[in-house]
Design goal:
Layout: H1 2-6, E1 15-17, H2 20-32, E2 43-45, H3 52-58, E3 72-75, H4 93-103, H5 105-111, E4 117-122, H6 131-135, E5 139-146, H7 150-166, H8 174-187, E6 201-203, E7 207-209, E8 215-219, E9 224-228, E10 243-247, H9 251-260, E11 264-265, H10 269-275, H11 277-293, H12 304-313, H13 315-321, H14 323-337, H15 347-350, E12 355-356, H16 363-372, H17 378-384, H18 386-395, H19 398-411, H20 416-424
Helix pairs in contact: 7-8, 11-14, 16-17, 17-18
Length: 427
């Protein structure tokens, strides 16, 4: 993974923490979680406060996610709201954290001037043993604490202010007045600064979780759909009257679900021809086949002319595998008729020519699911399915690892928003 780290393809865009007072605050939160404080003078954090350097120091990658549920967080600064989440077992952890930051911006801004916020994104279960445990998670509550108890002191000051205003002789109580002065030195003027988060409960919407080898949960108005490994505990047995279960090995059923719920955009010339989507798929399959047929080949500095020559030289093997000729045939049909008849295409190949409906709220999650059926498209895997990409990366030989890093740097990192907009329609 060192090559990915050096090229900011893993743990990229994190926030560097090197100020002594922030490190001290972080240590207070670590201590509250039962860990000894870090001795590092500098480390990086993501939106949740997770630090890869501290995880390495503690020898515990899950120090903020001990049971894979009830994710912990450490907030040192409002700037964390704009960071990615780089380690989690639930795909919507990032969105939940963002909603918390957005809904409580005033309180977080005020509190982090003097204190660190920490706590848990508390679910209704403490450990996930089966599918029923996942289905029980309908909403989450942010349990928020502050190391110096600024929030508690603000609440106490609020009560004393109320007493002063409501009890005629309260102003004569020197003890009450002195306590208010003492508290105000810590909290400031609570009439101007909100020091208690207002919104802490959020709905747990559609998500992917790493539990049971990878499980998708989609929530619609009248039903919930679980897509995953049929051998997972509780699969097809938990709430069968309410839950639609689909094996992730059943490409036909997965595709029919996505199409029936309008979660995918079917292949039409209106977006296919301008997006470069099929061209990217073609480029990815050729690179994958080169790696498969010639795993030790040095792929540095190859260009499109070299790729075209390789395709001609290996035409028989490429045609036997079938993906490349299928994509070319799909482009021709779309160019001639403006669309593609998916009923005539085998289920697994349908995922080659569709993308998530860009305006659907589950678009990112659907693109992640699609990438599970096209694992050799490392660009889509990296954009939407980093856990899958990192697992794939570990299986590749060094030459292909270097090649993939070079492609991602040149094709994605230079203009991430532009590529996501053009190829996937995502703003």
């Amino acid at each position: 993974m060192e090559l990915l780290y050096e090229n900011e393809l893993i743990y990229g865009r994190l926030l560097t923490i090197d100020q002594p007072h922030l490190i001290e605050r972080y240590n207070r939160a670590l201590t509250a979680f039962g860990y000894s404080g870090t001795e590092l003078k500098q480390f990086n954090i993501d939106r949740t406060g997770f630090s890869p350097e501290i995880a390495e120091e503690l020898k515990d990658l899950s120090y903020l996610d001990p049971n894979g549920v009830n994710r912990r967080f450490i907030i040192l600064t409002p700037a964390q709201a704009d960071l990615p989440v780089v380690h989690t077992q639930f795909s919507n952890t990032s969105q939940l954290m963002y909603e918390f930051f957005s809904s409580n911006a005033r309180a977080i801004n005020a509190l982090t001037i003097k204190d660190v916020l920490y706590g848990e994104i508390e679910d209704s279960v403490s450990v996930v043993n089966d599918i029923e445990d996942l289905l029980s998670i309908n909403q989450v509550e942010f349990r928020v604490l502050s190391a110096q108890n600024v929030m508690g002191q603000a609440a106490e000051l609020r009560l004393l202010v109320d007493r002063l205003q409501s009890e005629p002789d309260a102003w004569r109580d020197d003890g009450l007045i002195n306590r208010m002065v003492e508290l105000a030195k810590v909290t400031g003027d609570i009439r101007e600064n909100s020091l208690v988060p207002d919104k802490v409960i959020f709905r747990h919407r559609a998500y992917w979780t790493s539990h049971f080898g990878g499980t998708y949960v989609f929530v619609d108005e009248n039903t919930t759909t679980v897509i995953g490994d049929p051998s997972a505990p509780g699969f097809r047995r938990s709430r069968p009257w309410q839950v639609n279960y689909i094996s992730i090995q059943d490409a036909e059923q997965v595709f029919q679900f996505l199409a029936a719920t309008s979660r995918v955009e079917l292949p039409r010339a209106s977006w296919i021809e301008q997006s470069g989507y099929l061209e990217n798929r073609g480029e990815m399959i050729i690179r994958h086949l080169i790696q498969t047929f010639e795993p030790d080949r040095d792929l540095r500095n190859i260009d499109h002319i070299w790729l075209q020559t390789w395709i001609h030289a290996n035409a028989a093997s490429i045609n036997h595998e079938g993906t490349w000729p299928f994509l070319n045939a799909a482009k021709r049909e779309i160019g001639q008729t403006g669309q593609l008849n998916l009923a005539e295409i085998e289920p697994k190949r349908r995922f080659l020519v569709v993308r998530a409906a860009p305006r659907h709220p589950d678009a990112w999650l659907v693109n992640q699911l699609i990438s599970d059926f096209v694992p050799w498209d490392f660009l889509s895997r990296y954009v939407f399915n980093k856990p899958g990409f990192y697992a794939d990366y570990e299986t590749w030989k060094p030459a292909y690892q270097e090649h993939v890093v070079d492609i991602l740097k040149s094709k994605y990192l230079k203009d991430k928003e532009g590529l996501r907009k053009k190829m996937y329609g995502l703003g």
